[in-house]
Amino acid sequence: MADAAGRLTKLAEEVLGAPLPVRIRAWDRSESGPPGAPTLVIRHRRALRRMMFRPGELGLARAWVAGDLDIDGDLYEALDRLAGLIWERDDAPRPQRAAVVRALARPEIRAAARELLTLAGAPVPPAPPAEEVRRRRGPLHTLRRDKEAISHHYDVGNDFYALVLGPSMVYSCAYWESPSATLEDAQRDKLDLICRKLGLQKDRRLLDVGCGWGSMVLHAAREYGVRAVGITLSEEQATFARKRIAEAGLADRVEIRVQDYREIHDEPFDAISSIGMAEHVGRTQYGEYAAALYRLLQPGGRLLNHQIARRPVADEEAYHVDEFIDRYVFPDGELAPVGQTVGQLEEAGFEVRDVEAIREHYALTLRSWVANLERHWDEAARLTSTGRARVWRLYMAASALSFERNRIGVNQVLAVRTPESGESGLPLRGRDWTG
């Protein structure tokens, strides 16, 4: 059938009741849409079948990961233009959503849908890409299921992550002095900020929950002389971190364990850092997480909880995790509003002393990671798979826009296990962390 792009554009605009914000280039080389706009490239009609059998975000994600769908032009601009149709569709005013539903019921739209079936070809649903996690069964956040989820995300190769993250090997939001700073400097400044907030001193005992490739414990031991324990559920991360620590001559001060926070029983610690780990904990488990960290701290000890936050929704019970993120990126991961996080830390017994929002910093960090991935694309695809590299590029670019558009944020929450005397150990003036 000729002019597939024109037919698809017409169908989309009839459903939306507005011009399509991107161009379309179809497998028959036809093009349609606003001149000069980023182009949505439909390389194979199989992409349509993926979207028809799983309408919405998951169908689009499968087509993208499989390479059936691509973007020609600026990826960020394309995602920004498409956000209202895909990721932010649930935020549209109710009358706008109702108008789309009414449009889908019109006879001419049903006729166009039948034409779309013809365009899509054989009515057989394509198999999901190999990089997708199939739907899991059983209770959330058991020790085994959490370990499997962490392995999916982090055990994709240390060499791959080295390309994306750079020499710092820090996989969390950096702390930028200015947009022109280097990623390495921004990550070093983040680690140092956390050390200062925790009031680290020589021979103090630090626990880093979700230690990744060991960057936090390495910095804290080298620069502040602490004795540190880092825990991770990733075997690959642990191997890499131990090698770094040995090469730095700090094996007598830093221990790396493959261990869940629920399995630690050699308290007390003087300080605990949890950087980009609590997103994996989940709503049902967060109270236990907060209580465990409180138990592991000695009175007067400080916790620095660095965590991504979503915006509150009217019906918290109706909140659902994005399908693309759940199936391809962070299985079983959940985001909570910062107020909810603070409340649960307080319920566990902590005194929350400071909350610092650094949302814009994460957008800068993600754009740097995307640039690293694009710069080393061929090698990154060779180290994992082309599909996996496409997952990371899409999720990091889309996440950067989500931070920039204030759809999600990230916060550093400083809390203290204040002793019965009421002496928190913090200086009188806020954010003078060491007095």
From TrEMBL:
The keyword Repeat does not apply. Residues 160-401 form the Polyketide synthase-like methyltransferase domain. GO terms for biological process: lipid biosynthetic process; methylation. The lineage of its organism: Bacteria, Bacillati, Actinomycetota, Actinomycetes, Kitasatosporales. Keywords: Lipid metabolism, Methyltransferase, S-adenosyl-L-methionine, Transferase. CDD domains: AdoMet_MTases. Belongs to the CFA/CMAS family. This is Cyclopropane-fatty-acyl-phospholipid synthase.
